[in-house]
Design goal:
Chain lengths: 115, 111
Amino acid sequence: GAGVSQSPSNKVTEKGKDVELRCDPISGHTALYWYRQRLGQGLEFLIYFQGNSAPDKSGLPSDRFSAERTGESVSTLTIQRTQQEDSAVYLCASSLGTGLGGELFFGEGSRLTVL
Amino acid sequence: DQQVKQNSPSLSVQEGRISILNCDYTNSMFDYFLWYKKYPAEGPTFLISISSIKDKNEDGRFTVFLNKSAKHLSLHIVPSQPGDSAVYFCAASEGNTPLVFGKGTRLSVIA
């Protein structure tokens, strides 16, 4: 498709398990972002990839969270030893670049529920 | 500490009237502001933006106003339509930094 694709759309896991969330950005978009939205909260920035530069990991809430991106394509967000407070919708977005005019195109999100 | 604040979690407006959604920010270095709209079970979609060198940007029924001295922006929708019912997020960025989002305001347009 032409948009940002995320999988799985829903994931239920037990506390302590690891999960992987996948994002396929729009072709040609050099910037890729992960945000999360916990219940009743806004979109919380997690990590950002721009081309071949080192990722900006400043938003990752703990060392249980990590993300990888292969070139300018697919990205995987990994959460190790999940906790109940990790329950949220994880949103991936891509853009042509950053700064002024850097409009983000979001996927539909991956809803994670940690029991 | 929230840098982008949307103090009204919800707003209800009659169809045909004006909807005004407000957003305040604390970082005076923000130079680009956007509004996103989100329907349930969908990702946010871009609606309208404004750079800090302007105080108004209009696109059809949507107008964004920026008051830099007050660190305040607002989104006006007129006339409001039932299809406008959604959660609206205000977002801001400083240079090449990732967007910072508010908590959102849920708009309900009543027919």
